[in-house]
Amino acid sequence: MFKESHAFSGFSTNDIGKARDFYANTLGLDVTEDDGLLNLHLAGGGGVVIYPKDNHQAATFTVLNFPVSDIDQAVDGLTGAGVTFERYPEMGQDERGVMRDQGPPIAWFKDPAGNILSVIEIPMDRQSG
Q1: Which of 30, 81, 83, 98 is 20 to 30 A (C-alpha) from 5?
Q2: What is the pTM of this model?
Q3: What is the pLDDT of residue 127?
Q4: What does R_g of the chain's alpha carbons equal in angstroms?
Q5: How many helices (H) and strands (E) does the chain have?
Q6: What is the pLDDT of residues 23-43, one digit of tens each?
Q7: Pairing mode, if any, of strands 106-110 and 116-121?
């Protein structure tokens, strides 16, 4: 039924301006704004819509994963851009915030509205798109 549908994901924010600045300038994504909605244009043609919500509550789970071929390089770059990585004691992360021993290496961080994002190390030949 939806095999040919160009599906997209979405989540809310309490400040479209801060979200636009973070996703465009800190993360370097292509971002447009239409009718009060923020559109993230992802590699491979995917997209995410971020919508304003006055009573926004940040997701308590990862809403967006960024596959990278070198997690250490990604963590260094994001840290240099002012991103702080989340610490989850139960996940056994290293001093940089990277969990390395329960699947692919992954590190979590938050957007300005508190939504959880991640960088996850996946070899380039296994990345979608």
Answers
A1: 30
A2: 0.90
A3: 66
A4: 15
A5: 2, 8
A6: 999 999 999 999 999 999 999
A7: antiparallel
